[in-house]
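Here is one chain, start to finish.
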Amino acid sequence: MKRILLFIVTNLAVLLVLTIVARLLGLDTWLAVHGQSFGGLLVWAALFGFGGAFISLAMSKMQAKMFMGVQVIGDSPDPTEQWLLAVVERHARAVGVGMPEVGIFDSPAPNAFATGASRNSALVAVSTGLLQRMNREEIEAVLGHEMTHVANGDMVTLTLIQGIVNTFVLFLARVVGNIIDRAVFRSEDGRGIASYLTFYVLQIVFGLLATPLVMWFSRQREFRADRGGAQLAGTGNMIAALEDLKRGSEPLPAQQFAAFGITDAAAVSGLKRLFMSHPPLDERIAALRALGTH
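Its structure:
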């Protein structure tokens, strides 16, 4: 219910901000003079901006099973799988969420991720490489990290932020595309072929410019999830798990889940750092050490 309320409030906030900015710049008047509705354009941008993001989130569990080959643990007699279920169930009770589906995917690199459309309908998956490389205490910490993502509603919140960004990108790309079409290509209504070509190019440009904002939030939630994993399984175990990831981390096989995994690709510097969904592992480890080991 809180996430639905947040979704409604966020939509209203986006529409309000865009309306105020358009009024201050006289954009609404300019659009009206040129035969376009500011309100209609705004609703269109919000509909497609948020719609695409939430459709992707709604399909995320299905995509994980299809594209990453996640096999959900059922009534398997395998003791390791039963232990995984027990750990996740214990963490779920501790953070106050419903029991998620638990699965395993085939990858030699140690990794894990959580996804799903709500806190009480999530999927937590671990790689075969993680099960082979880490001891049980470290795996518990990784699962605690992922369950903290679930409890914090990070999947939905990140989708909301992406929806906001998409709305601004679509709106600005359409308006600027129409202006360029009129000014450069002399189209009478700003809807010539150049307008559509410019619109798609500007979508890419504005999307790239906005991505660092989304990635900044993603990096902050990783620090929070690390603290959650430390609280659930011990700071020392969480640090040990991250140290292990340093020795063998690789991106997830399906890149659409990169932001939801416990580790990203190797650390980079400069402008590339702005596009990282995860902070460097050394920074995450240092942040946990500052908390003190327990």
